[in-house]
Amino acid sequence: MTAYTATVTVRLKRGVLDPEAETTQRALERLGFELEDLRSADRFELDLDAESAAAAEERVDEMAERLLANPTIHDYEVEVTER
Amino acid sequence: MTAYTATVTVRLKRGVLDPEAETTQRALERLGFELEDLRSADRFELDLDAESAAAAEERVDEMAERLLANPTIHDYEVEVTER
How far is CA A50 from CA A5, A6, A44, A59, B60, in A? Predict the structure, then answer.
């Protein structure tokens, strides 16, 4: 077993409204910053043990499907590195 | 002016309680997944124009200090790439 850290980035799909990001962008503009666009995402960092990086990725993929992301409105990305 | 995308990752400082991450970890464990640890973070992706990558990073750093992160409880990281 090897120790891995997996990073899951959960983003809203294109076309899904993101009022939090809009509010944040407007607040930054009110402070005088110029921005083309701002998107927000959730990031989870998971420490886990697995036989291989591929096995870790498969397991974390399942966690994302079942709990971390909502496939109706979210896209997600998994990245696995050795710890 | 060049177009850049900056990614700001905002994490709770070590020692700051993170009930959302704890709840998520426990929910995953209840589904049968084994985890050593789970940390959650916010991620902002900003599209902006700047003279150089260094100028973009400096500007985004200021946005993080002033609005995106709360320096009392958060650490943050800025990464700039050309768009």
Answer: 10, 11, 18, 9, 37
